From TrEMBL, chains A, B:
It comes from the Bacteria. Keywords: DNA-binding, Transcription, Transcription regulation. Gene3D superfamilies: 3.40.50.2300, lambda repressor-like DNA-binding domains. Pfam families: LacI (PF00356), Peripla_BP_3 (PF13377). The keyword Transcription regulation applies. This is LacI family transcriptional regulator.
DNA sequence: ACGCGTTGTGAAAACGTTTTCATAGACAAC
DNA sequence: GTTGTCTATGAAAACGTTTTCACAACGCGT
């Protein structure tokens, strides 16, 4: 039925071993190599990667496990990861967990069964805490979210500093009743909250924190409720792009303009944050570099398994726009 | 080193065949099945999927090949495809081509070598034209873009109708000098252009068409140039979300307000199109359904290989917003 | 008591490669 | 001329499963 390496061997008048070597990097005379290549063209042979993987024990595959590819942060990171992977001759298996610990476990098990070369993973806080390196036969690089210190390689934003930077900026612009709305599932959101709290304390201001599932709809609901309350904040710091979108929606729906009605500052410099008047103040994450660094860490560990665990901490960049204009 | 099925068999005191059957669906007595399950737990056995695939000739893998996962249309579709795939117990291999025909060919070859169960593919026009079913040993479902009639199953938008609908809407709102800016690489863009042209003709208006690489930067540049010309249009129809973003950017940069300065209408109801004042008029595509239908077609063809080629044509929905407000 | 299908099991073949091992030949050194 | 070190090659083992095949044990109708 399907043409295999033995068909090629027969057509070229050589052994299967020689075909394998000619196609790979083994030592073969130029004459035979050409014969083999001709035979490959003649037969239309395509190697069977499952067989190759089984025999050579090298999957040449990396797994990418994120909460939701529709989150533009993960979209951008995944693109960088994919580029690096294919550049290294590896394929990418994509998994969306929807912030669900059970699916995380399921996919991690799947990765073991695939015998993948490595995994890039953005875990929920719950999973990150019980992630033990010795349970995984492959390098596991954490992105965006981080686990207990010393566990796995990872690349994250300096979330505490970023959270504080937003507060500092708002204070500088004349705001003092600053609320914080953070995602409930990730260590990242918690760190950003920590930064927020530290900065508020430093400025002698009273923090108001709420948490929410990190998606647009829950965030919109929570902000709508918040805006309707009597002592509502003058400014809001939120912990990611989806929540920011929910907040914008809620403010629009409530007819609250900004920065007049409520100042808004968040994370992720998505294209639309510049476009929605008068522009949203955000911390820009170096998304492409996060993905590239993650793959870098992964390849390094493959090359030098014994090396100490490394965490790359990247800095965000504050982009001030109209949504945090000076308080009048 | 790594624990295999024979280790489990030894631990359970049975043959490897029995282990395989106990884990799969073969007939095994309850007693032995329990013994096997215990042995699996005890040994921490994880099946090797490469070996399983090699032997059973069922890859349980579907490939997804798109231009760029960062295009929100593809992001949303891919999420739907992934959901359907994992629900059916299959994994997803993701590939970005960047609208490059060479990479498309590369990835299609990769899919053959992976012996995938099926592929969902959004080809460039160039590739779509030379896509012959007999070259592929697996079902290939085209999304968004379409090939020559009768070639492959596919699910697309009714692009001609959608392109015309935007023109009709603009005419109704009082515009007559309506330009069209379309992507240069996809059949989709061409069809939307056809719809635009037909509608313009029907209304007795003179069309002005330009094409551009379907990404935000090229589009922004083209629109900026266009706006600077003397006989510039009063309204612009563009063929996808990225181009729309470029157009908005260019209008902003040129200080041209809308709908006053230039009316804007495009495709893809991304969240930000509602948020950027006064809202952008777009054709909404049923992204989730496109992905789901594609997988449906794929599974149908696996079940009934001989059935005639099917093309599912879905309708877009016009969402009128402020960007095409009545011409004053 | 006999044949006969059914069911559960194990031995061994098969899947399509890569890799190990053995060997034949070429060439250099003594 | 013998020995030794290469290099290119082929035969066969190996990778870890599933599947085929053979067979024993069992219940059933005659």
């Amino acid at each position: 039925m399907t043409v295999g390496i033995r068909d090629v061997a027969r057509a070229a008048g050589v052994s299967t071993a020689t075909v394998s070597r000619a196609l790979g990097k083994g030592p073969v005379s130029d004459a035979l190599r050409e014969q083999v290549e001709a035979a490959v063209r003649a037969t239309g042979y395509r190697p069977n990667l499952s067989a190759r993987r089984l025999r050579s024990q090298a999957a040449q595959t990396i797994g990418l496990i994120v909460a939701d590819i529709r989150n533009p942060f993960f979209t951008a990171v995944s693109r960088a990861v994919e580029d690096a992977a294919y550049q290294a001759g590896m394929r990418l298996i994509l998994c969306n967990t929807g912030e669900d610990a059970e699916r995380e476990a399921l996919y991690l098990r799947l990765m073991q069964e695939e015998r993948v070369t490595g995994v890039v993973f953005a875990p929920t806080r719950r999973t990150a805490e019980r992630l033990r390196p010795e349970d995984f036969p492959f390098p596991l690089v954490l992105i965006d979210r981080t686990g207990p210190p010393g566990g796995h390689d990872g690349v994250v934003l300096d979330n505490v500093a970023a959270g504080a930077a937003l507060v500092d900026h708002l204070v500088e612009q004349g705001y003092s009743r600053i609320g914080g709305l953070f995602g409930s599932t990730s260590s990242t959101a918690r760190e950003r909250c920590d930064g927020y709290l530290a900065a508020m304390r430093r400025h002698g201001l009273a923090p108001q924190v709420r948490t929410v599932l990190p998606d647009a709809e829950p965030a919109q609901g929570e902000v709508a409720r918040w805006l309707a309350e009597p002592g509502r904040p003058e400014a809001l710091v939120v912990s990611n792009g989806l929540i920011l979108m929910g907040a914008v929606r809620a403010a629009r729906a409530a007819g609250v303009a900004w920065p007049g009605g409520i100042a808004l500052a968040g994370f992720d410099n998505e294209p639309w944050t510049e476009l929605v008047e008068p522009g949203l103040t955000v911390i820009e994450q170096p998304v492409a570099e996060i993905g590239a660094q993650a793959m870098g860490l992964l390849f390094d560990r493959l090359k030098t398994p014994g090396q100490p665990v490394r965490k790359v901490v990247l800095s965000g960049r504050l982009i001030a726009r109209g949504s945090t204009g000076r308080r009048s």
